Fold:
Amino acid sequence: MGLLSHPDKKLEDHLKEVKEWGNFYKSINPQVLKEIDADIIDSYLLFHDMGKGTLYFQKYIRKEPVEEKLKSHAAISAMLFLYYHIQKGTVKEREEIIVSMAYAILKHHGDMESYSDIDNYLSNETNNGLLQQQYAAFDYQAMMDMGVRVGLEEEVLRKIFNGDAEEFLRTVSRFLKDRRYKIFQQKSQYRKMKTSNQGSFKEYYRLQLLYSILLDSDKSQVTIGTRKLAERAELYADVNGYIDKKDTTETALNVLRSQAFKEVESNIDLDKDIFTLTLPTGMGKTLNSFNFAFKLREKLFQEKGIPYRIIYVLPFMSIIDQNARVIEDVLEKSGQKVTSRVLCKHHHLTEITWKTDENTLLNNANAEILLEGWNSEVIITTFQQFFSTLFGHKNSIQRKFNKMCHSIVIIDEIQALPVKYYNFAGKMLSEFTTALDSKVIAMTATQPRIFPQEIAKSLCDYKKYYRQLFRTVIYNELDKPRTIEEFVEEIVVEEDRSYLFILNTIESAKLMYTLLKNKYNEVPITYLSTLIPPKERLVRIDEIKKKKYRIVVSTQLVEAGVDIDFQVVYRDLAPLPSLFQSAGRGNREGGELKGEIHLIKLKGGNGYYANMVYREAKTDVDVTERILSNYKVLEEPDFMAVIEAYFEKISDDTVKSQDISKYLLEGASNKRFYGEKESAQLNQGILPLNYFELIEPESEKYPVFIELDGDAADLWQEYIQILKEKEEPWEHKRKLKAIQREMAEYVVDVRAFTRAKYNKPQKGENELYYYVSYSELDKYYDETTGYGVESSVYYY
Structure:
């Protein structure tokens, strides 16, 4: 077969097809890469695997023994690409673009680390020796002939495949050495002038896009094969018609919702890139934002002829399904056939299926590539997926980056970002809209100061809506700290009223639940926390919505996105945005009796519970207490003034340091993607982007599978069987991921502290989960409060 790229594919065919896939992905992002000449893009895609032409790789692909390092091909491909453009002369005018492409080729089988890796690659003698050995292992005539057939310039190919390995390395080394010197001079100049290296982030986003297109083209060519599955789809949605068909009574709240809907829709402005949508909780922000995004999409298409994707980003995985159902319902009632090309939801536990236009359900490698590549018109995803891609470095995640071009991104509950990242996220999102021709809609009930007012357009006069709402009143009891025992002794649960207690820790919530249950044993009561498996948690939330319980005790998991309604809410001290989110669970639909929100401060043996859970946000809690000390009673029309005062204080760099944001911006500007955290140089004012973390490191949690029922037992047996099977690695990985998604309904993540406190279930040598069998539930699981039974009998 001649030169091979894969066991069953010619190298020449693979390179040509990757070029075609790359041009396909470029064609659906027409504005973003238009500055780069077509022949440069083509050569980038063609050279990405050129190193597979060595004798060493050809032996390896035919299953002949060969030394591991000799079969590697990314570095030799990257350096040949540079050599080609040095010889051609294009590198003089397009240096940064061509070096970015070389770096992407260098890293296309791994993760990005630091952009400077490409400049320093040939400073290493070991790398030089390996490249010289690999260059000498080409069949030069075969490589030239193949290069000509795939569309590269014959005259230049003769120069780079002339058999002179020393000239190859000397030429590329000299170019990189001169480049390092120029960069050193620039940095010295910045230091002398004492200015930041932050300029335009265009180069950062261009590199991310080039890397993504190469990864996506390479994997799509190998797996999907046909571009028909990845083509754009028609999209139509009539949100106005959907709302009109709903049976809504003419309540004061619905009148306000309608007003807000019309006001937001009237504020479409194609010249603006950042929009903010601030409305009180319960005002229908999901439908409002989707309607605005769809109308904006229509106008952009009329002006540019480009169909923008809509990416809906949510802070919590637990609320993706309910939002996806709403959007799917809108599309279906608008007459839109909903296939996976139209709508997909994506998080790390998404079921890997892909519904085609022919109603065929794919659940193989094709489905995985299509889903994780975001080949849909509407994508509903998490903060973790979106921001880990926007600021990411991992090969597996960055592949979908190119689908963020020409997109309208709705970020729901944007205040859920940690405050230390506000400046970083605001600057990077603003640069993102410019670099990738996209729009951002930041949505919240408590608009934080993430974007400068001069660049963001507010979609409605949110203050007038707050002024007209009288659903709830906040009673400030923070000046009276109590233990949970003291609080429960004082509390009086009145007949015909419903009560929600939101606490900061699982332990405090469990104690509150136990004491309230003992005191009011005739009143229907339930409990929620993350130590209850998701399957059971959803059952309880559904029962709460149906008013089955008069008392609910919960951790913060009900704070946002869980549509429940109570007459009285008690909330332990937290940062102000969290308190106001909790207030949104009180009299949500605007009943005649005002909802009461009581802010309390609870303490235990180790101090205040607020300080335990908000250790990193202690400043936020302190600012909250100071601001609220001016109010004993707070009516809903005054909520916004208070939250604005809070964000003004928090955004003051002398109160809440934004150094992490500043250093991360330097990291992005320098294209420093990854670095060991222990060796990161904070005092140099730069942090690699892997410092941006939305969730705690996985090492601090232990996944426990709880066999609640027969379905769980069947899943566990299937999981054990998959672990035992000996089969092709990719198929094994696919089966494992598929079963883990189903198992997630029965898994709780247990923190190290909690694990030390309770009986510990065991874990098999190759198993990912600690396992609680149905026959041993009583040793580890309480049917009301979930995982965690105190005893020394079963302590392993």
